[in-house]
Amino acid sequence: MRIPLLDSVPMPPLRIVLVDDHPIVRAGFRQLLEMEPGWEVTDELGSAREVAAWLLTAACDVLVMDLSLPDGDGLVLIRHVLAQKPGMAIVVMSMHDGALYVQDALSAGARGYVTKRAAPDELVDAIRAAGRGERFLGKDVRAQNHEETDEAAGLPELTSREAQVFLLLARGHSVSRVAATIGISNKTAYAHRANIYAKLHLQSDHQLRVLAERRGLVS
């Protein structure tokens, strides 16, 4: 007896949400991503506040987000999103390609990291990989990390964690924001800052930023 073939079951659409504070950037990426069969951009969000409100009622398969938002730190936001929705796949799309930015994003729970200078197909590949539960780094990110294994190379006096705290302070983060960004307690963050001050003979965050600029670690 001949067994009839079962109709193939269509794959559910891949739901994507874009987080960037520039509407024209979101529109361009929406157009790119919705060219992929079965992909749908379900929401566009422009701030950390909008993401927090969206988390209360909505869901998606992949969240594509910038780290630089007008009202919040993207690294803190990654941790907040994953605390609310642990299974969320997050791809960072940022202008920053420094090793510690990438390391911090991946440590916070992001599955992918591409820069805004990357070729469009890299974002597509990153989303596809994240949707499968895999990690993806863009070509320029890999190249930068190969050339500059760690921005901490410019801070040989410090441990890798101290260098991480140093760079966040140099970028203007408060101690409490540093703690939230890298997932440590305020007490531990203050202890790291004290160690940094002692090792580098500093007395203030202003002196720290001047030193970071002198060593070419921040602009």
TrEMBL record:
Keywords tagged on the record: DNA-binding, Phosphoprotein
Modified residues (4-aspartylphosphate): D66
Alphabetized CDD domains for the sequence: LuxR_C_like, REC_NarL-like
Taxonomic superkingdom: Bacteria
HTH luxR-type domain segment(s): 151-216
Gene Ontology molecular function terms on file: DNA binding
Domain Response regulatory: 15-131
UniProt protein name: DNA-binding response regulator
Organism in which the protein naturally occurs: Noviluteimonas caseinilytica
